[in-house]
Design goal:
With 261 residues, the chain is an alpha/beta fold. The protein has helices spanning 193-198, 203-217, 223-233, 238-248, and strands spanning 2-3, 8-9, 14-15, 20-21, 26-27, 32-33, 38-39, 44-45, 49-51, 56-57, 62-65, 78-81, 86-87, 92-94, 102-105, 110-111, 116-117, 122-123, 128-129, 134-135, 140-141, 146-147, 152-153, 158-159, 164-165, 179-182, 187-191. The strands form three sheets. An eleven-stranded mixed β-sheet has the order 1-4-7-10-13-16-19-22-25-26-27.
Length: 261
């Protein structure tokens, strides 16, 4: 354990084995820092934060402060960060809003400089947020998704697993899993072929995902008609079922076809 004498660490902080806290970092009472967590100089970790093993909080990052929600009345809420995460310079992760609720960052996530994660957000594992991307309240990002730099994501939006959103986009509706797109106005480019290849998806699965993308976005069908066609014509492998369930359960609507219910 290496706690610099110029770090401010309140009594009542849980410190695992091998924790390192650099000069002028602040860690408040009640925080939990698991084994080998590194808190860099001038980072701020509030007392309602639990940080998993081998994660690093870089200079200027601020974790667990009051949510930016006018409904918040001082309830005890939390932030939980998984293992092997990198929270880069000047990123901000607010506490949740509503009693005992948690902002969750999954294992192996990379949140780059100046990103913002608002109250009640949930990120899966291996999520990447590029510089200055911003999540409003209640956003959900599934495993392995990527959000490009300078991209705001509207409240309650969901971004599906393995999806890639390009930089300088504006995301106001849900992004289906395995897809790729970007811009303002947002346009889909198809299935995230390169991302799927890198993560070991075989050609047979990638081809089926291309088929369901075309049915959903290129056949001029309403969303429900497209999903019915997919269920009737495409083998119901887990990835196809995930696409159908994700789209059917959308509350905000799907980018690109929001008006065609």
């Amino acid at each position: 354990m290496d706690i610099n004498k110029y770090a401010f660490v309140e009594e009542g902080v849980y410190l695992g084995k091998g924790v390192s806290i650099e000069p002028f970092a602040v860690v408040k009472k009640g925080a939990v820092l698991k084994d080998n967590v590194v808190i860099k100089s001038h980072a701020y970790v509030n007392g309602n934060v639990n940080i998993g093993e081998n994660s690093t909080i870089w200079p200027g990052a601020v974790i667990g402060t009051k949510p930016q929600d006018l409904k918040y009345q001082g309830e005890k809420t939390y932030v939980k960060i998984g293992k092997n995460c990198d929270i880069r310079e000047f990123a901000t992760i607010n506490a949740s809003c509503q009693e005992s609720s948690v902002v969750e960052i999954g294992d192996d996530c990379l949140i780059m400089a100046y990103c913002h994660v608002a109250h009640n957000c949930k990120l899966g594992k291996r999520v990447v947020m590029a510089n200055s991307s911003m999540l409003a309240g209640h956003v959900e990002i599934e495993d392995f998704a990527i959000i490009g730099g300078m991209t705001p994501v509207h409240q309650f939006v969901r971004v599906g697993a393995y999806a890639m959103v390009g930089g300088f986009s504006r995301v106001v509706y849900d992004i289906p899993p395995y897809s790729i797109g970007g811009g303002d106005p947002f346009k889909f480019g198809g299935i995230n072929i390169i991302g799927l290849q890198r993560n070991g998806f075989p050609l047979s699965i990638r081809n089926k995902l291309c088929q369901i993308f075309k049915i959903t976005f290129r056949k001029n069908l309403t969303l429900e008609k497209a999903l019915e066609k997919i269920e009737k014509e495409i083998e119901p492998i887990p990835e196809v079922k995930h696409w159908v369930d994700f789209c059917r359960n959308s509350k905000r609507g799907i980018m690109g076809i929001n008006g065609k219910k």
